[in-house]
Structure prediction request, 617 residues.
Amino acid sequence: MSKQFDVSGLNVYYGNHLAVKDVALTVRPNQVTAFIGPSGCGKSTVLRTLNRMIEVIPGGRVEGKVELDGIDIYGSDVDPTAVRRSVGMVFQKPNPFPTMSIYDNVVAGLKLEGKRRSKSELDEVAERSLKRANLWDEVKDRLKKPGAGLSGGQQQRLVIARAIAVEPEVLLMDEPASALDPISTGAIENLIREIVEDFTIVIVTHNMQQAARVSDYTAFFNLAGQGQPGQLVEMDTTEKMFEAPDEKATEDYIAGRFG
Amino acid sequence: MSATATAPDAVDAAPSLNARRLPLWWPLVGLLLAIVVDIIVKTTGVITGTLSLIILALTIFIVASTGWSMAVEGRRHAVDRTSTIVLWSAFLVAFVPLVSILATVVVRGWNAFSVAFLTSTMRNVLPTDTTGGVLAGIVGTIEQVGMAVIIAVPIAVLTAIYLVEYAPSFKSQRMPKIVSFFVDVMTGVPSIVAGLFVYTFFVLALGGQRSGFAGSLALTILMIPVVTRATEEMLRVVPNTLREGSLALGIPRWKTIVRIVLPTAAGGITTGVMLGIARVAGETAPLLLTTFLAQDVNWNLFSGPQASIPTFIWDQFGSYTTASVDRAWAGALTLILVVAIFYTAARVIAWLTAPRTR
Prediction:
Protein backbone atom coordinates (compact mmCIF):
# COMPACT_ATOMS: atom_id res chain seq x y z
CA MET A 1 0.00 0.00 0.00
CA SER A 2 2.69 2.52 0.74
CA LYS A 3 4.55 4.33 -1.94
CA GLN A 4 8.00 5.42 -2.95
CA PHE A 5 9.23 8.96 -3.49
CA ASP A 6 11.75 9.78 -6.20
CA VAL A 7 13.11 13.31 -6.02
CA SER A 8 15.41 14.71 -8.69
CA GLY A 9 16.84 18.14 -9.46
CA LEU A 10 14.84 19.76 -6.66
CA ASN A 11 15.40 23.48 -6.04
CA VAL A 12 13.21 25.17 -3.45
CA TYR A 13 12.61 28.93 -3.47
CA TYR A 14 11.01 31.32 -1.03
CA GLY A 15 10.16 34.15 -3.40
CA ASN A 16 13.44 34.76 -5.23
CA HIS A 17 15.61 33.34 -2.48
CA LEU A 18 16.99 29.88 -3.21
CA ALA A 19 16.70 27.93 0.03
CA VAL A 20 17.63 24.41 -1.03
CA LYS A 21 19.69 23.43 -4.04
CA ASP A 22 19.70 20.41 -6.28
CA VAL A 23 18.32 17.63 -4.11
CA ALA A 24 18.03 14.08 -5.44
CA LEU A 25 16.92 11.25 -3.19
CA THR A 26 14.70 8.20 -2.91
CA VAL A 27 12.35 7.46 -0.06
CA ARG A 28 11.81 3.73 0.08
CA PRO A 29 8.39 2.25 0.86
CA ASN A 30 7.69 0.88 4.33
CA GLN A 31 10.95 2.25 5.64
CA VAL A 32 11.73 5.07 8.02
CA THR A 33 13.88 7.73 6.37
CA ALA A 34 15.41 10.38 8.60
CA PHE A 35 16.50 13.85 7.46
CA ILE A 36 19.23 15.15 9.74
CA GLY A 37 21.42 18.22 9.68
CA PRO A 38 22.11 21.47 11.51
CA SER A 39 19.44 24.15 11.95
CA GLY A 40 18.46 26.07 8.86
CA CYS A 41 19.92 23.59 6.38
CA GLY A 42 16.66 22.87 4.61
CA LYS A 43 15.49 19.54 6.02
CA SER A 44 12.02 20.82 6.95
CA THR A 45 11.84 22.69 3.64
CA VAL A 46 12.52 19.51 1.67
CA LEU A 47 10.05 17.59 3.84
CA ARG A 48 7.36 20.12 2.99
CA THR A 49 7.94 19.67 -0.71
CA LEU A 50 6.88 16.04 -0.38
CA ASN A 51 3.25 16.97 0.31
CA ARG A 52 3.12 20.36 -1.40
CA MET A 53 2.83 22.15 1.93
CA ILE A 54 5.69 24.35 0.73
CA GLU A 55 3.10 26.17 -1.37
CA VAL A 56 1.14 27.18 1.74
CA ILE A 57 4.01 29.45 2.74
CA PRO A 58 3.72 32.74 0.82
CA GLY A 59 6.32 32.70 -1.95
CA GLY A 60 7.16 29.03 -1.60
CA ARG A 61 7.78 27.25 -4.90
CA VAL A 62 9.78 24.38 -6.31
CA GLU A 63 11.65 23.49 -9.46
CA GLY A 64 12.46 19.94 -10.36
CA LYS A 65 10.60 16.67 -9.98
CA VAL A 66 9.03 15.03 -6.98
CA GLU A 67 7.53 11.72 -8.05
CA LEU A 68 5.25 9.63 -5.89
CA ASP A 69 5.18 6.16 -7.43
CA GLY A 70 6.07 7.63 -10.78
CA ILE A 71 3.59 10.53 -10.79
CA ASP A 72 5.07 14.02 -10.48
CA ILE A 73 3.04 15.58 -7.67
CA TYR A 74 3.77 19.06 -9.03
CA GLY A 75 2.29 18.22 -12.40
CA SER A 76 -0.22 20.71 -13.74
CA ASP A 77 -3.05 18.20 -13.57
CA VAL A 78 -2.39 17.19 -9.98
CA ASP A 79 -4.59 18.53 -7.16
CA PRO A 80 -2.56 19.49 -4.07
CA THR A 81 -5.42 18.48 -1.80
CA ALA A 82 -5.37 14.96 -3.25
CA VAL A 83 -1.60 14.79 -2.71
CA ARG A 84 -2.04 15.75 0.94
CA ARG A 85 -4.61 13.00 1.44
CA SER A 86 -2.00 10.52 0.32
CA VAL A 87 0.87 12.12 2.15
CA GLY A 88 0.05 13.06 5.73
CA MET A 89 2.01 15.33 8.01
CA VAL A 90 2.64 15.67 11.74
CA PHE A 91 4.16 18.89 13.03
CA GLN A 92 6.59 19.75 15.78
CA LYS A 93 4.06 21.42 18.02
CA PRO A 94 0.94 19.27 18.48
CA ASN A 95 -1.98 21.10 16.88
CA PRO A 96 -5.30 19.47 17.77
CA PHE A 97 -8.25 21.57 16.62
CA PRO A 98 -9.29 23.54 19.70
CA THR A 99 -13.00 23.72 18.94
CA MET A 100 -13.32 19.95 18.56
CA SER A 101 -13.47 17.01 20.94
CA ILE A 102 -10.93 14.16 20.85
CA TYR A 103 -13.30 12.04 18.78
CA ASP A 104 -14.02 14.88 16.36
CA ASN A 105 -10.32 15.58 16.01
CA VAL A 106 -9.52 12.02 15.01
CA VAL A 107 -12.27 11.82 12.39
CA ALA A 108 -11.86 15.43 11.19
CA GLY A 109 -9.92 14.37 8.12
CA LEU A 110 -12.64 11.93 7.13
CA LYS A 111 -15.63 14.11 8.00
CA LEU A 112 -14.32 17.15 6.20
CA GLU A 113 -13.11 15.19 3.21
CA GLY A 114 -16.52 15.39 1.60
CA LYS A 115 -17.70 11.81 1.53
CA ARG A 116 -20.68 11.03 3.73
CA ARG A 117 -19.84 8.33 6.21
CA SER A 118 -22.09 6.63 8.73
CA LYS A 119 -21.58 7.16 12.42
CA SER A 120 -20.63 3.54 12.96
CA GLU A 121 -18.01 3.80 10.26
CA LEU A 122 -16.54 6.89 11.90
CA ASP A 123 -16.63 5.24 15.33
CA GLU A 124 -14.75 2.27 13.97
CA VAL A 125 -12.11 4.41 12.29
CA ALA A 126 -11.68 6.51 15.44
CA GLU A 127 -11.14 3.46 17.62
CA ARG A 128 -8.78 1.87 15.12
CA SER A 129 -6.67 5.00 14.69
CA LEU A 130 -6.48 5.72 18.41
CA LYS A 131 -5.46 2.13 19.09
CA ARG A 132 -2.82 2.32 16.39
CA ALA A 133 -1.50 5.53 17.96
CA ASN A 134 -1.41 3.89 21.40
CA LEU A 135 -3.82 6.44 22.77
CA TRP A 136 -7.09 4.47 22.93
CA ASP A 137 -6.80 3.20 26.48
CA GLU A 138 -6.07 6.64 27.83
CA VAL A 139 -8.93 8.46 26.15
CA LYS A 140 -11.65 5.89 25.46
CA ASP A 141 -13.73 7.17 28.36
CA ARG A 142 -13.51 10.79 27.40
CA LEU A 143 -13.77 10.90 23.66
CA LYS A 144 -16.15 13.85 23.77
CA LYS A 145 -13.86 15.99 25.85
CA PRO A 146 -11.86 18.72 24.12
CA GLY A 147 -8.67 17.67 22.41
CA ALA A 148 -6.70 20.46 23.97
CA GLY A 149 -7.11 19.03 27.47
CA LEU A 150 -4.45 16.33 27.02
CA SER A 151 -0.76 16.36 27.88
CA GLY A 152 1.80 17.21 25.21
CA GLY A 153 2.67 13.59 24.48
CA GLN A 154 -0.99 12.62 24.33
CA GLN A 155 -1.78 15.53 22.03
CA GLN A 156 0.97 14.47 19.67
CA ARG A 157 -0.38 10.92 19.61
CA LEU A 158 -3.85 12.34 19.00
CA VAL A 159 -2.53 14.29 16.04
CA ILE A 160 -0.80 11.15 14.74
CA ALA A 161 -4.10 9.25 15.10
CA ARG A 162 -5.79 12.05 13.15
CA ALA A 163 -3.18 11.82 10.42
CA ILE A 164 -3.36 8.04 10.06
CA ALA A 165 -7.17 7.99 10.19
CA VAL A 166 -7.34 9.16 6.58
CA GLU A 167 -5.05 6.24 5.69
CA PRO A 168 -2.28 8.02 3.82
CA GLU A 169 0.46 6.09 2.14
CA VAL A 170 3.25 8.25 3.45
CA LEU A 171 3.55 9.97 6.80
CA LEU A 172 5.83 12.98 7.12
CA MET A 173 6.93 13.97 10.61
CA ASP A 174 8.62 17.30 11.26
CA GLU A 175 10.51 16.94 14.54
CA PRO A 176 7.51 15.23 16.15
CA ALA A 177 9.11 14.63 19.54
CA SER A 178 11.25 17.73 20.03
CA ALA A 179 8.59 19.47 22.10
CA LEU A 180 8.05 16.41 24.32
CA ASP A 181 9.59 14.93 27.45
CA PRO A 182 11.84 11.84 27.16
CA ILE A 183 9.13 9.35 28.09
CA SER A 184 6.69 10.70 25.52
CA THR A 185 9.54 10.83 23.03
CA GLY A 186 10.17 7.15 23.60
CA ALA A 187 6.49 6.41 23.12
CA ILE A 188 6.47 8.27 19.80
CA GLU A 189 9.61 6.49 18.62
CA ASN A 190 8.14 3.08 19.47
CA LEU A 191 4.98 4.09 17.65
CA ILE A 192 6.99 4.97 14.55
CA ARG A 193 8.65 1.56 14.51
CA GLU A 194 5.24 -0.08 14.88
CA ILE A 195 3.32 1.75 12.18
CA VAL A 196 6.10 1.68 9.58
CA GLU A 197 4.75 -1.70 8.51
CA ASP A 198 1.70 0.13 7.09
CA PHE A 199 3.22 3.45 6.02
CA THR A 200 6.29 4.98 4.51
CA ILE A 201 7.67 7.39 7.07
CA VAL A 202 9.96 10.38 6.67
CA ILE A 203 11.07 12.06 9.86
CA VAL A 204 13.01 15.28 10.26
CA THR A 205 14.97 15.37 13.45
CA HIS A 206 17.73 17.51 14.88
CA ASN A 207 18.42 14.72 17.37
CA MET A 208 20.98 12.41 15.81
CA GLN A 209 20.55 9.68 18.36
CA GLN A 210 16.84 9.64 17.57
CA ALA A 211 17.67 9.20 13.88
CA ALA A 212 20.00 6.32 14.78
CA ARG A 213 17.33 4.69 16.95
CA VAL A 214 14.39 5.03 14.69
CA SER A 215 15.37 5.14 11.03
CA ASP A 216 16.37 2.68 8.33
CA TYR A 217 17.79 5.31 5.97
CA THR A 218 19.32 8.66 6.83
CA ALA A 219 19.83 11.73 4.65
CA PHE A 220 22.27 14.39 5.85
CA PHE A 221 21.62 17.99 4.79
CA ASN A 222 23.98 20.89 5.25
CA LEU A 223 24.53 24.48 4.17
CA ALA A 224 27.14 24.92 1.46
CA GLY A 225 28.42 27.92 3.38
CA GLN A 226 27.05 30.84 5.35
CA GLY A 227 24.29 32.50 3.36
CA GLN A 228 24.30 29.63 0.88
CA PRO A 229 21.38 27.36 0.07
CA GLY A 230 21.04 23.99 1.79
CA GLN A 231 22.06 20.80 0.04
CA LEU A 232 21.80 17.06 0.41
CA VAL A 233 25.30 15.97 1.35
CA GLU A 234 24.88 12.23 1.66
CA MET A 235 22.16 9.63 1.99
CA ASP A 236 22.52 5.95 2.82
CA THR A 237 21.39 3.26 5.24
CA THR A 238 21.43 4.49 8.80
CA GLU A 239 24.02 1.94 9.73
CA LYS A 240 26.47 3.10 7.10
CA MET A 241 25.82 6.80 7.75
CA PHE A 242 26.60 6.47 11.41
CA GLU A 243 29.49 4.05 11.21
CA ALA A 244 31.35 4.76 7.98
CA PRO A 245 29.98 7.72 6.05
CA ASP A 246 31.60 8.71 2.75
CA GLU A 247 31.65 12.46 3.24
CA LYS A 248 33.82 14.19 5.81
CA ALA A 249 31.09 16.70 6.58
CA THR A 250 28.75 13.86 7.47
CA GLU A 251 31.34 12.30 9.73
CA ASP A 252 32.02 15.64 11.43
CA TYR A 253 28.34 16.26 12.04
CA ILE A 254 27.74 12.76 13.42
CA ALA A 255 30.74 13.11 15.68
CA GLY A 256 29.38 16.36 16.96
CA ARG A 257 32.20 18.51 15.67
CA PHE A 258 29.64 21.03 14.43
CA GLY A 259 25.89 21.63 14.32
CA MET B 1 51.12 44.19 62.15
CA SER B 2 50.45 47.31 60.23
CA ALA B 3 48.30 50.29 60.49
CA THR B 4 45.40 49.64 58.19
CA ALA B 5 43.65 52.79 57.16
CA THR B 6 40.03 52.56 57.94
CA ALA B 7 37.35 54.99 56.89
CA PRO B 8 34.17 53.18 57.75
CA ASP B 9 31.95 56.22 57.47
CA ALA B 10 33.06 56.97 53.90
CA VAL B 11 32.12 53.54 52.61
CA ASP B 12 28.56 53.19 51.31
CA ALA B 13 26.68 50.41 53.03
CA ALA B 14 25.18 47.88 50.60
CA PRO B 15 21.45 48.56 50.12
CA SER B 16 19.51 46.74 52.75
CA LEU B 17 17.00 44.15 51.58
CA ASN B 18 14.30 45.36 53.94
CA ALA B 19 14.52 49.12 53.43
CA ARG B 20 11.77 51.26 54.84
CA ARG B 21 8.44 51.47 52.97
CA LEU B 22 5.48 53.78 53.41
CA PRO B 23 2.66 52.33 55.48
CA LEU B 24 -0.33 50.83 53.72
CA TRP B 25 -2.53 53.81 54.55
CA TRP B 26 -0.25 56.25 52.74
CA PRO B 27 -2.93 57.69 50.39
CA LEU B 28 -4.93 59.01 53.34
CA VAL B 29 -2.20 61.41 54.38
CA GLY B 30 -2.01 63.10 50.99
CA LEU B 31 -5.79 63.07 50.74
CA LEU B 32 -6.20 64.70 54.13
CA LEU B 33 -3.68 67.38 53.30
CA ALA B 34 -5.38 68.02 49.95
CA ILE B 35 -8.81 68.37 51.57
CA VAL B 36 -7.49 70.69 54.28
CA VAL B 37 -5.80 72.94 51.73
CA ASP B 38 -8.92 72.95 49.58
CA ILE B 39 -11.13 73.97 52.52
CA ILE B 40 -8.75 76.78 53.46
CA VAL B 41 -8.49 78.00 49.90
CA LYS B 42 -12.24 77.82 49.33
CA THR B 43 -13.33 79.55 52.53
CA THR B 44 -10.81 82.32 52.09
CA GLY B 45 -12.11 82.77 48.59
CA VAL B 46 -8.76 82.41 46.83
CA ILE B 47 -10.08 79.69 44.52
CA THR B 48 -13.68 78.66 44.24
CA GLY B 49 -14.19 76.90 40.91
CA THR B 50 -14.88 73.16 41.30
CA LEU B 51 -12.50 72.16 38.55
CA SER B 52 -9.72 74.33 39.96
CA LEU B 53 -10.30 72.89 43.42
CA ILE B 54 -10.07 69.35 42.08
CA ILE B 55 -6.87 70.11 40.19
CA LEU B 56 -5.44 71.79 43.28
CA ALA B 57 -6.37 68.81 45.45
CA LEU B 58 -4.83 66.38 43.00
CA THR B 59 -1.63 68.42 42.81
CA ILE B 60 -1.33 68.63 46.60
CA PHE B 61 -1.97 64.89 46.81
CA ILE B 62 0.74 64.08 44.30
CA VAL B 63 3.28 66.49 45.77
CA ALA B 64 2.67 65.38 49.36
CA SER B 65 2.68 61.66 48.63
CA THR B 66 5.70 61.84 46.36
CA GLY B 67 7.63 64.02 48.79
CA TRP B 68 6.90 61.70 51.69
CA SER B 69 7.81 58.67 49.58
CA MET B 70 11.03 60.28 48.40
CA ALA B 71 12.06 60.99 51.99
CA VAL B 72 11.26 57.52 53.30
CA GLU B 73 11.73 55.15 50.37
CA GLY B 74 14.04 56.82 47.93
CA ARG B 75 13.72 58.08 44.39
CA ARG B 76 12.74 54.91 42.59
CA HIS B 77 9.75 54.23 44.79
CA ALA B 78 8.73 57.87 44.73
CA VAL B 79 8.57 57.78 40.93
CA ASP B 80 6.57 54.55 41.19
CA ARG B 81 4.10 56.24 43.55
CA THR B 82 3.65 59.17 41.20
CA SER B 83 3.08 56.89 38.24
CA THR B 84 0.54 54.86 40.20
CA ILE B 85 -1.38 57.98 41.16
CA VAL B 86 -1.35 59.32 37.61
CA LEU B 87 -2.59 55.98 36.23
CA TRP B 88 -5.40 55.73 38.71
CA SER B 89 -6.38 59.33 38.04
CA ALA B 90 -6.50 58.63 34.33
CA PHE B 91 -8.69 55.61 34.97
CA LEU B 92 -11.08 57.69 37.07
CA VAL B 93 -11.19 60.43 34.46
CA ALA B 94 -12.27 57.80 31.95
CA PHE B 95 -14.55 55.87 34.25
CA VAL B 96 -16.39 58.59 36.12
CA PRO B 97 -18.08 60.16 33.06
CA LEU B 98 -19.30 56.73 31.95
CA VAL B 99 -20.89 56.01 35.31
CA SER B 100 -22.17 59.57 35.41
CA ILE B 101 -23.87 59.22 32.02
CA LEU B 102 -25.53 55.97 33.00
CA ALA B 103 -26.64 57.42 36.31
CA THR B 104 -28.02 60.56 34.66
CA VAL B 105 -29.97 58.62 32.07
CA VAL B 106 -31.45 56.34 34.70
CA VAL B 107 -32.32 59.18 37.06
CA ARG B 108 -33.82 61.49 34.46
CA GLY B 109 -35.41 58.78 32.39
CA TRP B 110 -37.06 56.99 35.26
CA ASN B 111 -39.85 59.55 35.46
CA ALA B 112 -41.50 58.74 32.16
CA PHE B 113 -40.25 55.15 31.93
CA SER B 114 -42.99 52.57 32.36
CA VAL B 115 -44.65 49.64 30.68
CA ALA B 116 -47.12 52.08 29.16
CA PHE B 117 -44.23 54.07 27.78
CA LEU B 118 -42.77 51.00 26.17
CA THR B 119 -46.02 49.82 24.68
CA SER B 120 -47.64 52.98 23.35
CA THR B 121 -46.82 55.29 20.48
CA MET B 122 -46.92 59.04 19.96
CA ARG B 123 -50.05 58.89 17.82
CA ASN B 124 -52.44 61.66 18.73
CA VAL B 125 -50.28 62.67 21.68
CA LEU B 126 -49.67 66.38 22.21
CA PRO B 127 -46.26 67.59 23.39
CA THR B 128 -47.75 68.57 26.71
CA ASP B 129 -49.53 65.26 27.32
CA THR B 130 -47.85 62.90 29.72
CA THR B 131 -48.99 59.83 27.83
CA GLY B 132 -47.29 58.56 24.75
CA GLY B 133 -44.42 56.17 24.31
CA VAL B 134 -41.56 54.86 22.27
CA LEU B 135 -43.05 51.65 20.88
CA ALA B 136 -42.78 52.89 17.29
CA GLY B 137 -39.13 53.69 17.96
CA ILE B 138 -38.38 50.30 19.49
CA VAL B 139 -39.88 48.47 16.53
CA GLY B 140 -38.04 50.72 14.11
CA THR B 141 -34.63 50.49 15.79
CA ILE B 142 -34.77 46.73 16.16
CA GLU B 143 -35.78 46.29 12.52
CA GLN B 144 -33.31 48.83 11.14
CA VAL B 145 -30.31 47.74 13.20
CA GLY B 146 -31.25 44.11 12.70
CA MET B 147 -31.36 44.49 8.93
CA ALA B 148 -28.07 46.39 9.00
CA VAL B 149 -26.49 43.47 10.88
CA ILE B 150 -27.90 40.97 8.38
CA ILE B 151 -26.41 42.88 5.43
CA ALA B 152 -23.20 44.18 7.00
CA VAL B 153 -21.89 41.14 8.87
CA PRO B 154 -21.61 38.73 5.90
CA ILE B 155 -19.98 41.44 3.77
CA ALA B 156 -17.58 42.33 6.58
CA VAL B 157 -16.66 38.74 7.44
CA LEU B 158 -16.10 37.82 3.80
CA THR B 159 -13.93 40.91 3.30
CA ALA B 160 -11.89 39.99 6.35
CA ILE B 161 -11.49 36.42 5.09
CA TYR B 162 -10.32 37.80 1.72
CA LEU B 163 -7.75 40.05 3.40
CA VAL B 164 -6.41 37.53 5.93
CA GLU B 165 -6.81 34.07 4.41
CA TYR B 166 -6.37 34.59 0.67
CA ALA B 167 -4.61 37.90 0.03
CA PRO B 168 -1.19 37.02 1.55
CA SER B 169 -0.54 34.41 -1.13
CA PHE B 170 -1.39 36.72 -4.05
CA LYS B 171 1.49 37.67 -6.33
CA SER B 172 0.24 41.25 -6.64
CA GLN B 173 -0.74 42.91 -3.38
CA ARG B 174 -2.31 45.86 -5.17
CA MET B 175 -5.92 44.75 -4.85
CA PRO B 176 -5.72 43.76 -1.16
CA LYS B 177 -3.99 47.04 -0.38
CA ILE B 178 -6.74 48.99 -2.16
CA VAL B 179 -9.47 47.08 -0.32
CA SER B 180 -7.75 47.60 3.02
CA PHE B 181 -7.34 51.29 2.30
CA PHE B 182 -11.00 51.76 1.51
CA VAL B 183 -12.07 49.89 4.64
CA ASP B 184 -9.98 52.37 6.59
CA VAL B 185 -11.55 55.28 4.72
CA MET B 186 -15.03 53.96 5.43
CA THR B 187 -14.25 53.93 9.15
CA GLY B 188 -14.03 57.68 9.01
CA VAL B 189 -17.16 58.42 7.00
CA PRO B 190 -19.30 60.86 9.00
CA SER B 191 -22.69 59.33 9.68
CA ILE B 192 -24.60 62.17 8.07
CA VAL B 193 -22.59 61.70 4.89
CA ALA B 194 -23.62 58.04 4.86
CA GLY B 195 -27.21 59.17 5.30
CA LEU B 196 -26.90 61.75 2.52
CA PHE B 197 -25.39 59.14 0.21
CA VAL B 198 -28.25 56.71 0.78
CA TYR B 199 -30.78 59.54 0.47
CA THR B 200 -29.35 60.59 -2.90
CA PHE B 201 -28.83 57.20 -4.46
CA PHE B 202 -31.62 55.22 -2.93
CA VAL B 203 -34.43 57.40 -1.63
CA LEU B 204 -34.39 59.93 -4.46
CA ALA B 205 -33.85 57.20 -7.02
CA LEU B 206 -37.07 55.59 -5.82
CA GLY B 207 -38.92 58.87 -6.15
CA GLY B 208 -38.55 60.12 -2.60
CA GLN B 209 -39.85 57.00 -0.93
CA ARG B 210 -38.49 56.99 2.59
CA SER B 211 -38.21 53.71 4.44
CA GLY B 212 -36.62 51.97 7.38
CA PHE B 213 -34.64 49.95 4.86
CA ALA B 214 -32.97 53.11 3.56
CA GLY B 215 -31.93 53.77 7.13
CA SER B 216 -30.56 50.24 7.37
CA LEU B 217 -28.44 50.88 4.28
CA ALA B 218 -26.94 53.97 5.85
CA LEU B 219 -26.23 52.04 9.06
CA THR B 220 -24.68 49.23 7.01
CA ILE B 221 -22.16 51.65 5.50
CA LEU B 222 -21.17 52.67 9.02
CA MET B 223 -21.09 49.13 10.38
CA ILE B 224 -19.08 47.32 7.70
CA PRO B 225 -15.64 48.84 8.43
CA VAL B 226 -15.94 48.27 12.18
CA VAL B 227 -16.87 44.61 11.87
CA THR B 228 -14.33 44.04 9.08
CA ARG B 229 -11.41 45.36 11.12
CA ALA B 230 -12.45 43.44 14.24
CA THR B 231 -12.92 40.20 12.30
CA GLU B 232 -9.56 40.73 10.60
CA GLU B 233 -7.83 40.99 13.95
CA MET B 234 -9.59 37.89 15.27
CA LEU B 235 -8.66 35.85 12.20
CA ARG B 236 -5.03 36.89 12.51
CA VAL B 237 -5.02 35.67 16.09
CA VAL B 238 -5.88 32.12 15.00
CA PRO B 239 -2.50 30.32 14.98
CA ASN B 240 -1.19 29.31 11.59
CA THR B 241 -0.41 25.84 12.92
CA LEU B 242 -4.16 25.14 12.90
CA ARG B 243 -4.49 26.03 9.24
CA GLU B 244 -1.43 23.96 8.39
CA GLY B 245 -2.69 20.98 10.37
CA SER B 246 -5.98 21.10 8.51
CA LEU B 247 -4.45 21.59 5.06
CA ALA B 248 -1.97 18.76 5.70
CA LEU B 249 -4.94 16.43 6.24
CA GLY B 250 -6.07 17.15 2.71
CA ILE B 251 -8.92 19.44 3.75
CA PRO B 252 -9.50 22.09 1.06
CA ARG B 253 -8.73 25.69 1.96
CA TRP B 254 -12.31 26.92 1.94
CA LYS B 255 -13.38 24.15 4.29
CA THR B 256 -10.40 24.87 6.53
CA ILE B 257 -11.63 28.45 6.81
CA VAL B 258 -15.30 27.63 7.36
CA ARG B 259 -14.96 24.61 9.66
CA ILE B 260 -11.72 25.27 11.54
CA VAL B 261 -10.69 28.94 11.42
CA LEU B 262 -14.07 30.67 11.72
CA PRO B 263 -15.28 28.57 14.67
CA THR B 264 -12.00 29.23 16.45
CA ALA B 265 -12.41 32.97 15.89
CA ALA B 266 -16.17 32.99 16.53
CA GLY B 267 -16.04 34.58 19.98
CA GLY B 268 -13.96 37.47 18.76
CA ILE B 269 -16.08 37.96 15.67
CA THR B 270 -19.16 38.20 17.88
CA THR B 271 -17.45 40.95 19.86
CA GLY B 272 -16.78 42.70 16.55
CA VAL B 273 -20.46 42.48 15.66
CA MET B 274 -21.33 43.94 19.05
CA LEU B 275 -18.94 46.80 18.39
CA GLY B 276 -20.68 47.36 15.07
CA ILE B 277 -24.09 47.44 16.74
CA ALA B 278 -22.80 49.93 19.28
CA ARG B 279 -21.47 52.08 16.46
CA VAL B 280 -24.80 52.44 14.70
CA ALA B 281 -27.55 51.97 17.26
CA GLY B 282 -27.53 55.58 18.40
CA GLU B 283 -27.00 57.29 15.05
CA THR B 284 -29.60 59.97 14.47
CA ALA B 285 -28.49 62.11 11.51
CA PRO B 286 -28.49 59.42 8.82
CA LEU B 287 -31.88 58.19 9.98
CA LEU B 288 -33.42 61.66 9.83
CA LEU B 289 -32.51 61.80 6.15
CA THR B 290 -33.58 58.30 5.25
CA THR B 291 -36.33 57.12 7.56
CA PHE B 292 -37.55 60.53 8.64
CA LEU B 293 -39.95 60.51 11.60
CA ALA B 294 -43.14 58.67 12.36
CA GLN B 295 -45.58 58.85 15.20
CA ASP B 296 -47.12 55.46 14.73
CA VAL B 297 -45.67 51.98 14.51
CA ASN B 298 -44.63 51.02 11.01
CA TRP B 299 -43.99 47.29 10.89
CA ASN B 300 -42.96 47.44 7.26
CA LEU B 301 -39.24 48.08 6.98
CA PHE B 302 -39.46 48.63 3.26
CA SER B 303 -42.20 51.17 2.87
CA GLY B 304 -42.90 54.49 4.43
CA PRO B 305 -41.15 56.51 7.14
CA GLN B 306 -40.32 54.53 10.24
CA ALA B 307 -39.62 55.78 13.73
CA SER B 308 -36.48 54.86 15.60
CA ILE B 309 -35.37 55.48 19.14
CA PRO B 310 -32.68 58.06 18.29
CA THR B 311 -35.06 60.07 16.10
CA PHE B 312 -37.71 59.75 18.81
CA ILE B 313 -35.29 61.24 21.33
CA TRP B 314 -34.41 64.05 18.92
CA ASP B 315 -38.05 64.77 18.13
CA GLN B 316 -39.19 64.74 21.76
CA PHE B 317 -36.35 66.87 23.01
CA GLY B 318 -37.09 69.42 20.29
CA SER B 319 -40.59 69.95 21.67
CA TYR B 320 -39.14 71.48 24.85
CA THR B 321 -42.13 70.77 27.07
CA THR B 322 -41.40 69.05 30.37
CA ALA B 323 -43.40 66.00 29.37
CA SER B 324 -41.54 65.71 26.08
CA VAL B 325 -38.13 66.14 27.67
CA ASP B 326 -39.04 63.43 30.18
CA ARG B 327 -39.99 61.20 27.29
CA ALA B 328 -36.68 61.95 25.57
CA TRP B 329 -34.73 60.81 28.64
CA ALA B 330 -36.88 57.72 28.96
CA GLY B 331 -36.17 57.08 25.30
CA ALA B 332 -32.44 57.29 26.01
CA LEU B 333 -32.85 54.73 28.77
CA THR B 334 -34.79 52.52 26.38
CA LEU B 335 -32.04 52.78 23.79
CA ILE B 336 -29.43 51.61 26.29
CA LEU B 337 -31.65 48.66 27.17
CA VAL B 338 -32.30 47.76 23.51
CA VAL B 339 -28.56 47.78 22.76
CA ALA B 340 -28.02 45.56 25.81
CA ILE B 341 -30.62 43.16 24.40
CA PHE B 342 -28.81 43.12 21.03
CA TYR B 343 -25.57 42.31 22.85
CA THR B 344 -27.20 39.46 24.74
CA ALA B 345 -28.71 38.11 21.52
CA ALA B 346 -25.28 38.21 19.85
CA ARG B 347 -23.69 36.32 22.76
CA VAL B 348 -26.48 33.73 22.81
CA ILE B 349 -26.20 33.13 19.07
CA ALA B 350 -22.43 32.72 19.40
CA TRP B 351 -22.89 30.30 22.30
CA LEU B 352 -25.49 28.27 20.43
CA THR B 353 -23.49 28.01 17.23
CA ALA B 354 -20.12 27.38 18.87
CA PRO B 355 -18.98 23.76 18.55
CA ARG B 356 -19.57 21.87 21.76
CA THR B 357 -16.39 21.18 23.59
CA ARG B 358 -17.05 21.23 27.28
Chain B has two domains: 23-109, 119-353. Residues 75-109 of chain B form the longest helix (35 residues).
